[in-house]
Every structure is written in structure tokens, then in C-alpha cells.
Amino acid sequence: MDxxxxxxxxxxxxxxxxxxxxxxxxxxxxxxxxxxxxxxHQELSGVLGxxxxxxxxxx
Length: 59
Fold this sequence. Notes:
Blueprint: H1 3-23, H2 30-55
């Protein structure tokens, strides 16, 4: 699998997991939502940073 395909797989897995965790918020107390949002933000920022770094790497 080439690096671009790997990046796409990681991005899709992260997005899928994010959707699941956001859907679970309905059953959680509102006070817990901020912690979930913070964690998701960190994870998504990391994936986007890695994808951006890959996009800017010369081939």
C-alpha cells in the first residue's frame, strides 16, 4: 500500500471513529461533552497535520 493509500485509510478510520463517538454523546451527560470534543479535536488535528505533511512531501 502506498503512502497516499495509507493516509486515506487512517483518515477514514479516524472519521468513522469520530462519528461513532459523537453519536454516543446523546447518552452522556452534557458536562462530559467538552472532554469528548477536546479529545476529538486533538485526534483530528493530528491526523490533518499528518495528511498535510504527507501532501507537502516531495516525491
